[in-house]
Amino acid sequence: MNEQSPQSDDRDYIAFVGTPNCGKTTLFNALTGLHQKVGNFPGVTVEPTIGTIHEHSSVRYIVDLPGVYSLLPKSADEQLTFDVLKGHNKEIPHPHKIVIVLDGSSLEKSLFLFSFCAELKIPAIAVVTMIDEIKARRGILDDILLERYLGIPVIPVVGQKGIGLEELRGSLFNEIEFALPNAIVRKDADITERHKRIREIFDEVITIQTDKVSEKLDKVFLHPILGPLVFILVLGLFFQSIFSWAEPLMNGLETTFSAMQNFVRGTMSESLLRDFITDALIAGVGSVLVFIPQILLLNVIIVFLEDCGYLSRAAFLIDRLMGIFGLQGRSFIPLLGSFACAIPGIMSARIIPSEKDRMATMLVAPLMTCSARLPVYALLIGVCIPPITIAGFLNIQALVLAGLYIIAACTGLLLALLFKKTLFRGATLPFLMEFPPYRIPSMKSLSIIVWNRSKEFLKNAGTVILVFSVILWALTEFPKADIPVGTSPLEAQRIQLEQSYAGTMGKTLQPVFAPIGFDWKTTIGVVGSFAAREVFVSVMGQLYSTDVSESDMQLREILQKTLPFATCLSILMFYVYALQCISTIAVLKRETGSWKWPAFAFAYTFVLAYSMAFVVYKVANM
């Protein structure tokens, strides 16, 4: 069972159609073996996926379409589903049949979508999900009467437990099972008439009690005082997990790759091949894998919050604040995650169904102060800001650090507003959020999603990061400098770096950075930190022949004597805004599907960083 590329041919395509959170993707995964994102949050399925089902010599091609509430498209997801079902999409063939997935716990909304699907005149079968939830709420579904109204076979299923899946699978291979649906409303009926008729059918085929558990929990989670307090607590745990809990795992990976480098150095004689293996391949692979703990934890938490039903409530609580900056509440999670690392933050922007909001969020995510900036901030703040305490507890250095975080966050939100009014302007969709019932997340789904997200990162972004890492290694290793005999290792590193292509590049670019106070050493540090922002510290250590593997104290003392105060502030401001991270650029390319937007992100952040550094440098000199 594998994913197939869409083609225009005579294959038998069957489209799965349903409302968000109806269990459609769970069925798709169970039938095809493809493990797609399964979430309890509207808009999780943001693009169609095609899978196959095999039975003897027969094959069925299943298309999982984005969840929609109607075929009156108002968003990119709805437009995509509409185009595929109408045969207007050039990449996805027009389906020969459709499976209409009805959410038993929210049947009225599903019947509303069914009324539009019936007008397509495509053979169909219906699947009713959440049967276990209906029983849990002491409800009764008359599936025989429902089948009579709809005019097509109705199959009750419980996707996570596998109930009804074999019957559904058999129906997909049985041409007789599919039939043209009844038009349950007049084709020319307006929305009011459509809703009225659907309500009549709903009242006849199902009796279900109010979800009292969800009501009780919402009294706490949506309470005007308790709700924000719970939200802050959840955010604290969220931030703590990806910022602190991932650190031991990341340190463990760094230690592992460092040990691998030392092992190779100890077993191979000094040569270009040894340097390539240790400093290019092992270091490059390590630079990719070091992000895995954060990506794992971020996805576990987000998927858990989605599946249990809380994330939609959190988006509702924060929506008003985010609306000031032209974004929806869903944008808050990716931006928060970017404070730990922009890579998992950008990847988590997939939970935003609006393409314009998603693009604006991803473009400003790199401005959130990630953990990679902290070593740079710690070094430079220690160089130019005295460790003075005000009122006995306010540390000036800590205040400056907090100020850098606040400046970056505020700038990012303001730019998001600017992007929404320029690049992504257009009619803003109303924030309509359906609160799904609270459910216990499936641990199997959690593991599948985390595995796929990690594999996707390694396959797509990881390859680009590795290539760039090798290129940066080559720039620092060639041409080989003439190192005098007896030169210490640190001094040899300094000479090699200074005479390498990277050093030449830094010296060549230095006049460009001169207006913001950068000398050639600082410029080389900036060029070297494209691998990752924190590399600035190690590059500066090499240039000043100082070992920073254990502590940057010696380098800090040297810079206090040699680095002007205005230049130090200028560098700080430059790193607040500059996109000095090839990993982030690679992920942006993966998530946007083009080099256009990563190039734009790099360009606008560079202009912003240079401009702000110039202002700070001039003011500090005054």
Write the layout of secondary structure elements.
Blueprint: E1 13-18, H1 24-32, E2 49-55, E3 58-64, H2 76-86, E4 97-103, H3 107-117, E5 124-129, H4 131-136, E6 140-141, H5 143-150, E7 154-156, H6 165-172, H7 191-205, E8 206-207, H8 212-221, H9 226-267, H10 272-289, H11 292-308, H12 310-323, H13 332-337, H14 342-347, H15 355-364, H16 374-384, E9 389-390, E10 394-395, H17 396-421, H18 443-477, H19 489-499, H20 501-513, H21 520-528, H22 535-543, H23 553-562, H24 565-577, H25 582-592, H26 596-621
Parallel strand pairs: 1-3, 1-4, 4-5, 5-7
Antiparallel strand pairs: 2-3, 6-8, 9-10
Helix pairs in contact: 3-7, 9-10, 9-11, 10-18, 11-18, 15-17, 16-23, 16-24, 17-24, 18-25, 20-21, 21-22, 24-26, 25-26
Q: Helical element count?
A: 26
Q: What would the principal axes of the Cα set say about the shape?
A: elongated
Low-confidence sequence ranges: 1-8, 37-45
Overall domain count = 3
If strands are numbered along the chain, what order do they take across the biggest sheet?
Answer: 2-3-1-4-5-7
Main sheet summary? 6 strands, mixed
Task: Write down the Rg.
Answer: 28 Å
Distance between the termini: 68 Å
- Helix content class: 55-70%
CATH level 1 class label of the largest domain: Alpha Beta
User: What's the average pLDDT?
Assistant: 83
Could you characterize what this model shows?
This protein has about 625 residues and is an alpha/beta fold. It folds into three domains: about 200 residues, Rossmann fold, CATH 3.40.50; about 160 residues, no CATH class; about 160 residues, no CATH class. Helix content is about 60%, strand content about 5%. It is built from 26 helices and ten strands. Helix 3 packs across helix 7 and helix 25 packs antiparallel against helix 26. The N terminus is likely disordered.
